[in-house]
Amino acid sequence: MANLKTTFAGIQAPNPFWLASAPPTDKAYNVERAYEAGWGGVVWKTLGEDPAAVNVSSRYSATYDAKGQVVGFNNIELITDRSLEINLREIEAVKKHWPEQALVVSLMVPCVEESWKRIVKLVEETGADGLELNFGCPHGMPERGMGAAVGQVPDIVEQVTRWCKLHSRLPVIVKLTPNITDIRFSARAAKAGGADAVSLINTINSITGIDLDQMVARPIVDGKSTHGGYCGPAVKPIALNMVSEIARDPATFGLPISGIGGISNWRDAAEFIALGAGSVQVCTAAMIHGFRIVSEMKDGLSRWMDSKGYEKLEDFRGLAVANTTDWKYLNMNYKVVANINDDSCIGCGRCYISCEDTSHQAIAKLPQPDGSNRYQVIEDECVGCNLCEITCPVSACITMEQREADKPYLSWIHDERNPHREVGH
Ligand SMILES: Cc1cc2nc3c(=O)[nH]c(=O)nc-3n(C[C@H](O)[C@H](O)[C@H](O)COP(=O)(O)O)c2cc1C
Ligand code: SF4
Ligand code: SF4
């Protein structure tokens, strides 16, 4: 059986599945039950200075797929609304009872050295394993000069990270905001400040929908609303891209990354690890389905690793990084075409409509004697865009097949159709 043991930024855990800083980790009752369920670690819900934050009612909204499953989750909650003292006391007790599991504490205080110095010392005294600096909360806290207001300014990211490293011996993980143009700048700043790791993503600025009767966005607080932070499966592609950007940036190469954003099952986790993540964090999936999902995550990941011959996480960690490159390095001479399997085709015509109306008119509709239609790809017209494969409702009915390249690898950099091509290399 594959070994899921994890060492992330010097922090040991029985597995890479950690609960992200959020309601699932905001008190001892939750965290202890999460450990019992098998989570390898938690990042305690963000602590701040007293007086504790005060939350509004209501707080969450969501987007759904056609079957009613949550695809995106939105919240306007603030950091912990319990006192610092209670949180610290509980953290100390939980760590004592659960020495093997990772316990990282998320922090957010004003951008004043004394404030950071004071809180990191208090956390250190609890015996916690590490600190996570919340530079990402996108609502409420930025209006007070914290959260994303810090994460959006690389100089401040670097400064605060430096203070924490100076005043604490604990590993410092900097949690980044995705509400920024280029995530690499904040990751570089964290590294420059001495961060032991980065974690990403925090939530994305969002409005999930409008109540058209009340003419107000959701969630509704006495007839008004505000933008929230988006998370859940819908944000996974954005998170994966940002993780890959940092993993393949020479300036941050090798900096440990904790992957967060839409992780709902073992496969999602494996994808983040393949892009270089050393641990993964989960929030929405646990909030929607409960703590028990971790059993399937651990089991699925171990089984898949066994099937691939990977004995430990390091055996496949980062293997997809080198294959994630800039567009200009892709092979211009590589060619795939769509192929329709007549045996599984149900004749719905969706592929034809999408290719005919919006792509390359590369699917022929052939009327049959019985009044039905047969659909056939016109290979010479097909550019291999994948649209019909994506549109087809029948699994594996349309497959993309590689055609033998009659020319060697050629990147756009050297392609003669590129007016700015490099010549003579
Ligand atoms: C209700 C709620 C509260 C959250 N509170 C915090 C917080 O206090 N500190 C923090 O760093 N992130 C917070 N987050 C963000 C999560 O830790 C995580 O970064 C984000 O939800 C993406 O992961 P997911 O797609 O698995 O939910 C919160 C998320 C939700 C849904
Ligand atoms: S891959 Fe694109 S171009 Fe080719 S048949 Fe399908 S939709 Fe048309
Ligand atoms: S979308 Fe799929 S099932 Fe429908 S006609 Fe095209 S190939 Fe057949």
Automatic annotation (TrEMBL):
Coiled coil: none annotated. GO terms for cellular component: cytoplasm. The keyword Disulfide bond does not apply. Keywords: Iron, Iron-sulfur, Metal-binding, Oxidoreductase. Its EC number is 1.3.1.1. PROSITE patterns: 4FE4S_FER_1, 4FE4S_FER_2. GO terms for molecular function: dihydropyrimidine dehydrogenase (NAD+) activity; iron-sulfur cluster binding; metal ion binding. Signal peptide: none annotated. The keyword NADP does not apply. It is an enzyme of class 1 (oxidoreductase). CDD domains: DHPD_FMN. Belongs to the dihydropyrimidine dehydrogenase family. It catalyses: 5,6-dihydrothymine + NAD(+) = thymine + NADH + H(+); 5,6-dihydrouracil + NAD(+) = uracil + NADH + H(+). Heterotetramer of 2 PreA and 2 PreT subunits. InterPro entries: 4Fe4S_Fe-S-bd, 4Fe4S_Fe_S_CS, Aldolase_TIM, Dihydroorotate_DH_cat. Involved in pyrimidine base degradation. Catalyzes physiologically the reduction of uracil to 5,6-dihydrouracil (DHU) by using NADH as a specific cosubstrate. It also catalyzes the reverse reaction and the reduction of thymine to 5,6-dihydrothymine (DHT). Residues 336-365, 373-403 form the 4Fe-4S ferredoxin-type domain. Pfam families: DHO_dh, Fer4_21. It comes from the Bacteria. This is dihydrouracil dehydrogenase (NAD(+)).
